[in-house]
Amino acid sequence: MKNNPTFKRIALMGRHQPNHIEDTLRAIDGFLTAQQYPIVYDTETAQRLSYPLKQVPLEELHAHCDLLVVVGGDGSLLQAAKIAVAQSLPVLGVNRGRLGFLTDVYPHELAIIAEVLEGDYQEEQRFLLSAEIFHESQHITTVEALNEIVLSPGNIAHMIEFEIRVGDQFVCDLRADGLIVATPTGSTAYALSGGGPILHPALNAVVLVPMFPHTLSNRPLVIDAQSHVEIQITANNEAVPFVSGDGQKRIPIALGDTFRIQKKSDTLRLIHPRSYQYFQTLRSKLGWQNKH
Amino acid sequence: MKNNPTFKRIALMGRHQPNHIEDTLRAIDGFLTAQQYPIVYDTETAQRLSYPLKQVPLEELHAHCDLLVVVGGDGSLLQAAKIAVAQSLPVLGVNRGRLGFLTDVYPHELAIIAEVLEGDYQEEQRFLLSAEIFHESQHITTVEALNEIVLSPGNIAHMIEFEIRVGDQFVCDLRADGLIVATPTGSTAYALSGGGPILHPALNAVVLVPMFPHTLSNRPLVIDAQSHVEIQITANNEAVPFVSGDGQKRIPIALGDTFRIQKKSDTLRLIHPRSYQYFQTLRSKLGWQNKH
Amino acid sequence: MKNNPTFKRIALMGRHQPNHIEDTLRAIDGFLTAQQYPIVYDTETAQRLSYPLKQVPLEELHAHCDLLVVVGGDGSLLQAAKIAVAQSLPVLGVNRGRLGFLTDVYPHELAIIAEVLEGDYQEEQRFLLSAEIFHESQHITTVEALNEIVLSPGNIAHMIEFEIRVGDQFVCDLRADGLIVATPTGSTAYALSGGGPILHPALNAVVLVPMFPHTLSNRPLVIDAQSHVEIQITANNEAVPFVSGDGQKRIPIALGDTFRIQKKSDTLRLIHPRSYQYFQTLRSKLGWQNKH
Amino acid sequence: MKNNPTFKRIALMGRHQPNHIEDTLRAIDGFLTAQQYPIVYDTETAQRLSYPLKQVPLEELHAHCDLLVVVGGDGSLLQAAKIAVAQSLPVLGVNRGRLGFLTDVYPHELAIIAEVLEGDYQEEQRFLLSAEIFHESQHITTVEALNEIVLSPGNIAHMIEFEIRVGDQFVCDLRADGLIVATPTGSTAYALSGGGPILHPALNAVVLVPMFPHTLSNRPLVIDAQSHVEIQITANNEAVPFVSGDGQKRIPIALGDTFRIQKKSDTLRLIHPRSYQYFQTLRSKLGWQNKH
Predict the structure, then answer these.
(1) Best residue in B99, B218, B292 to probe C by mutation, most C CBs within 10 Å?
(2) Considering only CA atoms, which of D251, D186, D243, D248 is closest in space to residue D220?
(3) Is residue A42 within 8 Å of A99, Cβ to Cβ?
(4) What is residue A281's predicted lDDT score, i.e. its pLDDT?
(5) Which of A199, A205, C250, D7 could cross-link with D66 by S-S, CB 3.0 to 4.6 Å?
(6) Cβ separation D224–C200 shorter than 8 A
(7) Chain A residues within 8 A of B166 when measuring between CB atoms
(8) Do B216 and D286 touch (CB under 8 A)?
(9) C205 → closest Cβ in D205, D227, D286
(10) Is the pLDDT assigned to residue A289 strictly greater than 60?
(11) pTM (2 d.p.)
């Protein structure tokens, strides 16, 4: 450890398929411990690992670290992001050997991790969305997402009818399989498969992507992220649709009910190596440099 | 005329197919003249009309009016926009019976025009793009656009190879029929046919839409409008492509040369009736309320 | 009734929302009865109606009629199609006032119905698909469709991994929300919303449309309808997906299992008025003649 | 040479950028000559090469060979295809190190070329299109294509108005940048960039892909290849558009004039190695197996 690094105490997290990531966690642990960095683990990660370590409850991580290092894919980082935002912790993502949009340090790049700790890094603010769900005008629950909030059909029917409002303005009635409301971070994930555009991460905007709309001219719509989006489910749908955030936590939403999506005030502090370039990640992940 | 209306002196413009618009121009002229509003015409419009009127040179319009009323389609307003921006004149668009994205007063709504003049209106700032074209690093000319700057192939080959940079960052090499760089205003015009998203007019963003890209994952990219976009034509293209703005003024661009697109600092002051709603125009123009 | 009409005995069917269609059924019944055409109803339709009529069990319709007239939307005709094919009955669709792709007689066009009965009509053969579902190589059940067979995710995850084979050839591994395999008839329905092409009904082809594929170059694929398509669900999916036909009958399909889609040998005899034109229906339903 | 090989006399062709392909031509020549196969070259290829060889006029190739081996990319094979069809010669494509859709033998696979000559190969029939262009009802000229016939705008305006008929039926009026009419062979080329589906090569169908259509619901349309397509340019276009085949031979087409596209009766005999699989080429060329 250099004198007075930027990040002095590190939390390591990596839960998904620990058999694939234990080696990486152990390597990072060994490397940083050798440099005198104190390492902690959240309880859940700790319980899956087979080597001695210091564990703390998830909700107390912020008291024991300055930086959360997440080992895994973009999905792991999505989960960690909510914890990081709640505890105001910056996050560095280490992938499992294949570049992610959010996890841009390779597991063998231990030297880069050291550089980051010493202050040689880029920090980006990535915003999140919250969807507040109401039942008969009573607030029921809130779904959060770094990537996207999705309205999906329930079990039986695939077509949902709903009304979209942006700000106070009526946008349209839509008949579709659902709706994706994505952040710039999420614009290269599910929304991209659905035909949405790529939103540069520095953009303060969200994109509404209708899923399989019945009317072919219902195209993706990009709006200012300060606008709130209100969705009302039409009363005469055949099945109960649901709302999810980042592919998790499916909340059913009753016919006639409403949910409202807006930008959260807290943002994710996403840490990148100094050499990180957003467009380099795009080129690599989307195969733009492949010569077919 | 009420006491002290907001807009006291009016310029009328309408050049395209004057046989279709003379009736509308005459009706507006008669209606406003009866209310004591002084009316002027630019020379070119004046010369196409068959009734007595006061004409002034195009470049002196601002000295004789507070508001430019354009009769015609969106194409007419695109042309008038450059003049209006250069002379800091607000613009109101009157269509020829069919709603436009930019011309949202119907020709029979004379009362609405009166209300606008008296101060009952909405004003939007719509930004323009400029494309500065360089030959061997020397600035050659500038193309402006309210809708979009387009890079298109020349006569023979349809595939162009070029490199895109945003800010100082390399984005990608692209092989495509061309590239559309559109403002929010232009996002519902040519860029939409090319698969681009709809950008809300309040958004400070531009969208880059690759035209028929060879690599299918080259998708529309939305960036902050403050970023400048730099396009370099690869040296080994077979034909000389060209750059145009709003479908006008085609400037050839030599192989190896570069052009740079950025937001103009001056904006168009676009005047709408009080009742104008952007999403209502979208629904109408894109057929969202049709029941097929 | 003219001497020796082509269709001598008529079955009327119309179950969906009978309150909307009872008037139409009654009008057709009155009109044809006055011309001495014997009319029967299937039991289910009959039970929803409030006027005296002759009813026969659904499976015996063919013994009592030469033509099945279905009143309702395209969805009603989709359901009736399976019965008609099983009993080799031609079908004429009467819509509820809004043109359908399959129901092209308007309810007020009683004279056209008479002309059809007298032999003045066009007949098209529309083919159906069957999906045979296997569990551990044992055939479990069969799903049929006039429009499309769809592989959809189950409740939790939205991404499915599966392998596609056409004929004996491996096509690709796919990660997507699902897959639509559509007939020409279905190409203007759900598959069109999913980005598929329009297949002319005379074409002996099916289209495979990946739903929200993870790899953007996974595009719709049109193959000869004689080829059979085999889908194997990858063993490591997180949720159990299901197979449906024409939006009905959802059959869960276990991880590792397979289903095979092929053209049925029996076709639907779809009856149109003499004046029917396929492209006229396309123009009307897709809004091609709208002037926006 | 084995006793009695299937192809006894070989013509070698490779004109594009001969500096890149001379080594490959020389290697094939040496390999086959050593096996006693007589080799000829067309005059144009011969003149670009620097080693001794036997040359014959292009139009007499068929009298001197049983198989035309084309070295180059898909573009080279497109050009050779017209000659091969005119002279009823089968064609084998050897790429320049990067797989093509039509050139599927790698330059180092000399043993595979020998196997093909000895009869170990697959043969496919690929059909071509012809576009007959009429001026004031007089036939002017014919454009042929293995990939696609394209209607493109001339210099100034990018929007063309035209009417499409298929068979004797009016399809629609279209306002677009143009129209691509592609064969299955061409469906993975320009038409794919334009949003068209992939048509399996065994399919007897063509796809009409509107280019940047003004009406968003104007989607790709797949029709039977036996149908002829008739395009009439509307009289009131601003610029003279043109018709091209496989990116070559641009024929201007006057306002009000017509061209008719139909399948040619002669087909291309395309030779593949025994191990060739169409879907393997798709996976490779479209990056379907990439793990991003």
Answers:
(1) B292
(2) D186
(3) no
(4) 96
(5) D7
(6) yes
(7) 200, 279
(8) yes
(9) D205
(10) yes
(11) 0.95
- Per-domain residue ranges of chain A: 10-120+274-286, 128-265
- Residue A74 known to be catalytic: yes
The pLDDT tens digits for A106-136 are 999 999 999 999 999 999 999 999 999 999 8
Q: Among C188, C204, C219, which would you mutate to test the D interface (most chain D Cβ atoms within 10 Å of its Cβ)? A: C219
pLDDT higher than threshold 60 for residue A38? yes
Q: Look at B290 and C287 and tell me if their CB atoms are within 8 Å.
A: yes
Residue D61 φ/ψ, nearest 5 degrees:
-50, -45
CB contact under 8 A, C212 and A211: yes
Dump pLDDT digits (tens) for B225-280. Answer: 999 999 999 987 777 899 999 998 889 999 999 999 999 999 999 999 999 999 99
Q: Do A203 and B197 touch (CB under 8 A)?
A: no
List C74, C177, C246, C257, catalytic entry: C74
Total beta-carbon pairs less than 8 A apart between chain C and chain D: 106
- Best interface-test mutation with D: which of C171, C207, C291 has the largest number of D CBs within 10 A? C171
Contact at CB, A173 and B277, closer than 8 angstroms: no
| CATH architecture entry for C128-265 | Sandwich (2.60)
pLDDT in tens for each of the 292 residues of chain D?
777 889 999 999 997 766 678 899 999 999 999 999 999 999 999 988 888 889 999 999 999 999 999 999 999 999 999 999 999 999 999 998 889 999 999 999 999 999 999 999 999 999 999 999 999 889 999 999 999 999 998 765 578 999 999 998 999 999 999 999 999 999 999 999 999 999 999 999 999 999 999 999 999 999 999 999 999 999 877 778 999 999 988 899 999 999 999 999 999 999 999 999 999 999 999 999 754 4
The Cα–Cα gap between C256 and C237 comes to: 9
Return the residue of B nearest to C219 by Cα. B216
Q: Which of A164-173, B148-157, D5-14, D174-183 bottoms out in mean pLDDT, i.e. has the lowest?
A: B148-157
Minimal Cα distance from B98: which residue of C?
Answer: C292
**Phi and psi at residue C176, in whole multiples of 5°?**
-160, 170
